[in-house]
Design goal:
Blueprint lengths: L1 H10 L10 H29 L7 H20 L18 E3 L9 H8 L2 E7 L16 E3 L2 E2 H16 L5 E5 L4 H8 L9 E5 L3 E2 L1 E2 L27 E2 L6 H7 L2 H7 L4 E6 L9 H8 L9 E7 L9 E5 L2 E5 L9 H5 L6 E10 H9 L8 E6 L5 E6 L13 E4 L11 H8 L3 E4 L2 E4 L10 E4 L6 H6 L6 E11 L1 E4 L4 E9 L5 E4 L4 E7 L5 E3 L1
Parallel strand pairs: 1-17, 2-5, 2-10, 5-6, 11-17, 20-21, 21-23, 22-24, 23-25
Antiparallel strand pairs: 3-4, 7-9, 8-16, 10-14, 11-14, 12-13, 15-16, 18-19, 25-26
Helix pairs in contact: 1-2, 2-3, 8-11
């Protein structure tokens, strides 16, 4: 029945409206009955799982499962495309505010007053697997032996000391990162920053055929009773869209509101450009035109490297985040167009705490469901239901985008990004990266390192020292390549070692607009 249900769901197109024949009416009734059975069966299984929760955690697990049940119900009921392409409207002129129109000069007292109304929240649920590392990604060293988390704590502490403020740092961990993060936080005990943590929800993976949870117990060390599968593999963190409900469930949301905090700045912990911005904060706390936006999404100009990034559109009279997964296949090229969709989402978000509390408490928070199919190590096909934090923008009043400079979007997803961050393109000040003033233009070079550089350990072993990249535009490296100490890269540099060959760039080499091939010929580019 479950297999039939999925087929019925996937074949059903809610965008087509026509008069039903008697047989169609019977089919619809049969489908409704199957949907009801699937929801009832899931609810029964979740009730059984709650009984396996460790003592004292039953209430927390029940709150998480309530959110999962609502998500699952929507997964069953919502059919057809999440957007109709023809209904996407041009953004109004006031939908995106230029960053350079924001006020930037404030007295020290004014800054303190604003900062005391701010909470900084970092999304800290990810692992370092994309960079060949095990464990929590925020604990990878990225600059001067300092980790993402070190730099974040430094930034907040500097604000608190400089202005006598009390900006709390909040980390949303996942069950994958919580234990390691908590152990690391002990070293910040004497720093002037109040650190809070909470875990995003832990949802059960769903068997794609039966639509029932794979897990048999809430206790991590328990045998899953599924051959070749650990119980840990039966669970997943449901994407960063879970931040709203999980922050509320942690009681921190209510606590911050009681303390007089007004806005939370949410960003990925691996975006080293996402620092607390006084101009944006002032725009929210002291609006020239009342009322202030409940939600601000930082966007930045799209380049050819960003064509897959989500963008803001006008849809149904509201701003909406449009992701590439929502785009019809025959419209993907149009979506990627830099001329039509000129900006993309940086995932730096500013949200009113009171508005967040409202939409969570009245269950009006609606975000598009991302259905993420997975095949586990034992071959079992499962689905994960996830949401993205930026998709909540349509639920808030007066939401707008602010077109920020590229310097506020410095994500480190790969070792190619890491090379840029570690280079002399940037200097480090109080945990924040600043572009080297000797760089003659602000654009960040495009760097593409091959598979030999994917893992951080391998990446570091291939550089005797990080090259001078002040005048670099583009770097592509492929194959077995190493760099000697004091190398300088300028313009466009392409280095390709063919299979079985090795290229050692000698110490002190200056490569400017060069192609270096496997036989070490150096050609003008």
């Amino acid at each position: 029945m479950a297999r039939m249900l999925l087929g019925t769901m996937n074949g059903y197109d809610s965008t087509k409206v026509h008069r039903r024949s008697p047989s169609e009416g019977r089919d619809a009734a049969f489908r409704e009955l199957m949907l009801h059975d699937a929801q009832t069966s899931l609810s029964h299984e979740l009730g059984r799982l709650i009984k396996t929760a460790p003592p004292g955690q039953e209430t927390s697990v029940r709150a998480q499962f309530d959110g999962f049940e609502r998500l699952f119900a929507r997964f069953l009921q919502e059919t057809g495309p999440s957007v109709k392409w023809e209904d996407i409207a041009t953004l109004p002129n006031d939908a995106i505010k230029p960053y350079n129109e924001l006020q930037t000069n404030f007295s020290k007292d004014a800054i303190k007053s604003m900062l005391d109304k701010l909470v900084v929240l970092k999304l800290n649920g990810g692992l370092g697997t994309s960079m060949g590392c095990t464990g929590t990604k925020s604990l990878i060293s990225v600059r001067n032996e300092l980790t993402f988390l070190d730099l974040t704590v430094q930034q907040i502490e500097n604000l608190n000391i400089a202005y006598g403020a009390n900006v709390p740092l909040v980390l949303m961990n996942s069950f994958n990162t919580d234990e390691e993060t908590e152990q690391t936080l002990r070293k910040y005990g004497k720093m002037k920053v109040e650190i809070h943590t909470f875990n995003q929800s832990r949802y059960p993976r769903i068997n794609r055929e039966s639509l029932l949870p794979v897990a048999r117990s809430c206790v991590e060390d328990t045998d899953s009773s599924v051959k070749g599968l650990s119980n840990t593999e039966c669970w997943y963190p449901p994407g960063h869209g879970d931040v709203y409900e999980s922050l509320n469930n942690s009681k921190l949301l209510g606590k911050f509101i009681e303390q007089g905090k007004k806005y939370v700045f949410i960003s990925n912990i691996d975006n080293l450009g996402a620092t607390a911005d006084l101009g944006i904060l002032n725009f929210l706390l002291n609006p020239r035109e009342s009322p202030a936006p409940e939600f601000v999404m930082e966007v930045t100009d799209k380049t050819r490297a960003d064509v897959k990034g989500g963008t803001l559109v006008q849809y149904g009279g509201k701003l909406r985040l449009l992701e590439i997964a929502q785009v019809p296949k025959d419209r993907v090229d149009e979506f990627k167009s830099v001329s039509k969709f000129k900006i993309f989402n940086t995932n730096n978000l500013w949200v009113s705490l009171e508005a967040m509390n409202r939409v969570v408490e009245n269950h009006s928070l609606h975000m598009e469901i991302i259905v993420n199919p997975k095949t586990l190590d034992n071959g079992l096909n499962v689905i994960q239901l996830e949401t993205a934090v930026g998709a909540a923008i349509k639920n808030f009043e007066g939401a707008i985008g602010i077109n920020v400079p590229r310097r506020r979007f410095l994500p480190v997803k790969t070792t190619s990004d890491l090379l840029v961050i570690m280079s002399n393109l940037y200097s480090l000040k109080h945990g924040s990266l600043e572009m080297n003033p000797k760089r003659s233009f602000p654009a960040v070079p495009l760097v593409k390192l091959g598979n030999s550089f994917t893992k951080v350990k391998d990446f570091l072993s291939r550089f005797a020292s990080i090259p001078d990249m002040l005048e670099l535009d583009h770097l592509t490296v492929s194959g077995d390549v190493t760099f000697g100490r004091g190398v300088s890269l300028k313009g466009t540099v392409i280095i390709i070692a063919n299979h079985g060959d090795r290229i050692d760039i000698p110490p002190g080499a200056i490569l400017e607009n060069k192609i270096v091939s496997g036989n070490l010929r150096i050609l003008d580019h």
